[in-house]
Design goal:
By secondary structure, the chain is mainly α. About 75% of the residues lie in helices and about 0% in strands. It folds into two domains: about 1-50, no CATH class; about 55-145, Up-down Bundle (AhpD-like), CATH 1.20.1290.10. The longest helix is centred in the last third of the chain and has 17 residues, at about 105-120. The chain is globular and about 40 Å long.
Length: about 150
């Protein structure tokens, strides 16, 4: 069972990092050491794979946690991209940022907002928004029109 968890962790990180499953352990070992890598892979194997939350739900939770924590810009950047891949919309990310500004402060939320905007632009803009939503949000000053 533990090997299965490790394999699920490899699969999760391969998807997140856009690398082959066979390259995940080396990716961690090169950056953080093999012991850290093994723990991270096993943790991901349990955290990103069960039936209670969808990948989309998990992505929202992780993005919120990283924004709240602050100081983890590169991690947030990767998880924003992954959240978009899991179906989170630009409008939902905007709403999350606005809500978190009240609870964690405007400096932290605005810093995260810059990262979100950069990633939205990097992946081609305002994905998954209903027709007209981008223009309405632009008129409200929340996004830039396409």
């Amino acid at each position: 069972m533990e090997d299965d968890r490790y394999e699920r962790g490899l699969k999760a990180y391969a998807s997140q990092f856009g690398i082959a499953e066979s390259a995940v352990a080396a990716y961690f070992a090169d950056r953080y050491g093999s012991r850290f890598g093994e723990e991270a892979i096993n943790a991901a194997g349990g955290a990103w794979n069960d039936d209670e939350l969808t990948l989309r739900d998990r992505s929202i939770v992780v993005v919120v946690a990283l924004i709240t924590q602050g100081g983890v810009d590169d991690r947030l950047r990767g998880h924003v991209r992954w959240a978009l891949e899991h179906g989170v919309t630009a409008a939902e990310l905007d709403a999350i940022l606005a809500l978190l500004a009240v609870y964690v402060g405007y400096p932290r939320a605005s810093t995260a907002g810059e990262i979100v905007r950069e990633e939205l632009n990097r992946v081609g803009g305002h994905r998954h928004e209903p027709d007209g939503e981008t223009n309405r949000r632009a008129a409200d000053g929340l996004t830039q029109p396409d």
